[in-house]
UniProtKB/TrEMBL annotation:
CDD domains: HTH_HMRTR. InterPro entries: DNA-bd_dom_put_sf, MerR-type_HTH_dom, MerR_fam. SMART domains: HTH_MERR. The keyword DNA-binding applies. Keywords: Coiled coil, DNA-binding. This is Zinc-responsive transcriptional regulator. Gene3D superfamilies: 1.10.1660.10.
Amino acid sequence: MSTARASGKRLRIGELAKATGVTVETLRYYEHQGLLTAPARGDNGYRYYSPENLERVHFILRAKAVGFTLKDIEELLSLEVQRESHTCQEVKDMAEAKLAEIEQRMSELARMREALSTLTDACCGGPMSAEHCTILSALAEGEVHAEHHHHSPDMEALAQKRDSHSSGC
């Protein structure tokens, strides 16, 4: 439990930002998006955030750290606030859907990495003009395919193209 929560201390926006490691602008954005409740204003006009807001920002940051979007987090916060009205299965379904998205993205990134690696392996990287650069040629001629329904660039074909240009690669 945080010190502010334990003490029941209300925090000004700068103090909340410092305590959570986010900017004041981020906190205002979260408030504007409905992720944080509007803070009470003191007699001096300052906004004072409750200890619950501190905990909520930590919740948001932890959810973002595992890949949830702010839209997802809005739904998670709704589930968290109304735990008695929802099932654990609902929360698990959200987490599993996010996991599936992450796994799909990782697969896409692996295909991109393979295609880019093939391109860089086929390029000599010499000091000559890029006029005959195999990377630029492959990109211009559509020989690069990182999508799952296409083949990756043919490294041998790119290497032959590189070797056929004596003034560059």
